[in-house]
Specification:
Length: about 130
């Protein structure tokens, strides 16, 4: 019984760990008064990239890391989770000296999540088509 619990725990960590890692990274950077931003990437671009990664990580968790479970429903769920986290991130930023919450950042978060998860969903369709042959 104990082995089964460890296996379950390990599976949950492997499936959801990337989402937790991305959320932690976003939280840390969001808590900085002057976060480092690459000069080649505007602030909204950085938001989009970070939330594309978060959306994909959430999609991995929602689908239990199984390509066959990537569907419109699981993709939408992952996007909604990422946007919800983006909202909490903007609230967090409102508590950090020198930072302010911005609607455009939340829109960039949502766009990034849609692009990231949409790309994975499209790829899952390609994979399903290839395996059907």
């Amino acid at each position: 019984m104990s082995r089964l619990r460890h296996a379950d725990r390990d599976r949950v960590l492997s499936v959801w760990g990337p989402a937790v890692g991305v959320m932690a990274s976003i939280f840390v950077v969001s808590g900085l008064s002057s976060p480092p931003t690459p000069s080649a990437l505007p602030d909204v671009g950085a938001h989009a990239v970070a939330y594309a990664a978060l959306g994909v990580a959430f999609l991995r968790g929602v689908t239990d890391a199984q390509w066959k479970q990537v569907t419109a429903r699981t993709t939408i769920t992952a996007v909604l989770l990422a946007v919800a986290y983006g909202l909490t991130d903007e609230i967090h930023q409102s508590l950090v000296p020198g930072r302010t919450p911005e609607l455009r950042d939340l829109v960039a978060d949502a766009c990034g999540a849609v692009l990231g998860t949409g790309g994975v969903w499209a790829w899952s369709i390609v994979l399903a088509d290839r395996t059907a042959r």
